[in-house]
Each structure stands twice: as C-alpha cells, then as structure tokens.
Write a structure and sequence with these properties.
By secondary structure, the chain is of the alpha/beta class. It is 28% helix and 28% strand. The model has no long low-confidence stretch (mean pLDDT 89). It has one domain: 3-Layer(aba) Sandwich (Rossmann fold), CATH 3.40.50.150. It has a seven-stranded mixed β-sheet with strand order 5-4-3-10-11-13-12.
Length: 212
C-alpha cells in the first residue's frame, strides 16, 4: 500500500458492500456523482459479455470501477495518468489481478501532456512541448485475451481505439465508450464489423456483429 497523503482521505461510505475508499479531500460532490454513475451503469456494462477474462480500462480516476472489475474479471489492466487519482486507485484496487499503469492510452507509444480543470476531466495534448506523461497503445500490451475495453478518456476515445485495432480484430471485445457516438468512431467501429447496441449514462456500448 502507498503511504496515505494529505491530498486524500479514506471514506467509510459503502458502495455495493465495499468500504474504505481513498478519495480527494473536499470533493464529496464528485464522489456522490461517481457512485451514482456506478449504480446506473453496473448492470448494463456486463449485459453483453460472453466471457469475463480480461478488461482494459482507461480514465480510471480513483479506481471505484476497477475494484469491482477485479471481482468480475480474471485480469484488469487499468490506466490513469493523474498522480493523485492513480495513488487512490492503487489503494482502492489492491488485488494482484489488477495491473495498474500511470499512463494514458492512445494511437501510438510516446508522451502526452494532460490538461484540465479538475482530475476528472484531464485531456491529452499531443505534441505539446511540455509532454511528460507516457501513452501506450492497447495493442502494445500483447494481450492473450480481451473481453472488454472500457474508455472514459475525455474525447480521446478515438485515438485509443486506433491503438487497439489489432486487439479488437483478434478478440472482438465488448467496447464501452464515453463520447462513443462520434462519426469518426462510428466509421472506425462499423468498419471493424461492430454495431452500437445500447447507451447508458454517458456511455455507448458496441459489440461485434458476427453477421456483418
């Protein structure tokens, strides 16, 4: 476990029978929003899964979803670039089946700069002279399976999908995207024989269409 810092506190609030959550000081309104999002999405997120082997998730924030993923999937690859959020995620999802990576996902391996008005809305800036946050492709993970890709990366979903094309074509995972109904994402995923089957909260759910 990482050492507790002054920037975080432990919440004894219960979420689906889980307690002791590391979270930011003075951000209770965002915690309430996060709990509400989980409550609204948790059933739909898993409705279309045939297998629950490997999930890749990015924009993990403090790891509330990641902790629950660790109870459902055999292996979780969790990406979060913000240092404070990553610190909380490491403590909130401490099980051995979670691979926690302080980095972003994109269409190539390299460096990006993260900017935003709060830790929940950081955006990647490519080619910025002050770039220092690592970014990886999902394909570079060389996974031996993939059941779900779930991305909440502040309008960088398309870039992350470009870096996952080989994985998508090989394993046909369910794909859940915030901002997942743009024309460029639609063109990319329909070109890979995917169809959008549902929307929950802010997220679009895509599955492989075997009949396409």
């Amino acid at each position: 476990m990482l050492r507790f810092t002054d920037s975080c506190k432990i919440l004894t609030d219960y979420v689906d029978d889980e307690t002791n959550w590391f979270y930011y000081h003075d951000a209770d309104h965002r915690w309430i929003h996060l709990k509400d999002c989980w409550k609204a999405t948790k059933e739909k997120y898993f409705e279309y899964l045939n297998e629950k082997n490997v999930v890749v998730t990015a924009g993990c924030h403090v790891g509330l979803y990641v902790r629950f993923y660790s109870k459902i999937f055999k292996r979780v690859y969790a990406f979060e670039p913000n240092p404070e959020s990553f610190h909380c995620m490491v403590n909130n999802a401490a099980t051995e089946n979670v691979v926690k990576i302080q980095a972003a996902l994109g269409e190539c391996n390299g460096l990006v700069k993260m900017e935003g008005w709060c830790p929940m809305s950081l955006q990647a800036k490519v080619g910025h002279e002050d770039a220092f946050i690592p970014t990886f492709t999902i394909d570079s993970l060389s996974l031996n399976d993939c059941s779900l890709i779930q991305l909440d990366v502040e309008n960088y979903e398309y870039n992350a999908l470009l870096g996952a094309k080989n994985t998508i074509q090989k394993y046909h995972p369910v794909i859940i995207l915030e901002n997942g109904d743009t024309q460029e994402i639609t063109n990319l995923l329909t070109g890979l024989n995917y169809k959008k089957v549902d929307r929950v909260q802010y997220d679009d759910i895509w599955i492989y269409d075997e009949k396409a």
